Amino acid sequence: MAKKKAAGGTPATVALTAAGAAFTVHAYEHDPSSASYGEEAARALGVSPDRVFKTLVADVDGELTVAVVPVAGSLDLKALAAAVGGKRAAMADPAAAERTTGYVRGGISPLGQRRRLRTVVDASASAHTTICVSAGRRGLEVELSPDDLVSLTGAVLAPVGRS
């Protein structure tokens, strides 16, 4: 018997539910003119930007790789390459990131991707009881423990974010 998606569910929330993980979904009205999806989410949810993490897709030596870093900072591409044993990293082509993950830019979740990509979560996540990441669409965040995020994505924790 096929599992039904919950009404309004995304592949990310479906994956969390299937795994039995504890999580909370937070919805907010997305403003298309917002300059930063992550900072918009932090403001809308009233959460510190160091607890809201953005999902970025990079190309590390020809392989798409996900980096999950605080919205308050940026991704250190050299550190990302080193974290996965690579030599060179660059931001991925947005169309390739969308096609591979099954999500649109600004709504890419590290969870429930069409094709599971190698994932690195910034080490700062472990300083928090819970963090927020995209739930799979603009205006929708999911709050969960960093340990669950690492476990469910098969991620490694490494210092890949810059303040």
Describe the structure concisely:
Residues 1-7 have low confidence and may be disordered.
How does this structure look, described?
The protein is of the alpha+beta class and about 160 residues long. Helices cover about 25% and strands about 30% of the residues. It is built from five helices and ten strands. The strands form three sheets. The protein has a five-stranded mixed beta sheet. Strand 2 and strand 3 form a beta hairpin. The radius of gyration is 15 Å and the shape is globular. The N and C termini lie far apart (about 45 Å).
Low-confidence stretches: 1-7
Gap from first CA to last CA = 47 Å
What number is the mean pLDDT? 91
SSE string, helices as H and strands as E: HEHEEEHEHEEEHEE
Can you summarize the main beta sheet?
Answer: 5 strands, mixed
Helix content: 25-40%
Strand order of the largest sheet: 5-2-3-6-9
Q: C-alpha Rg, in Å?
A: 15 Å
* Content of β-strand: 25-35%
Number of β-strand runs: 10
Count of alpha and pi helical runs: 5
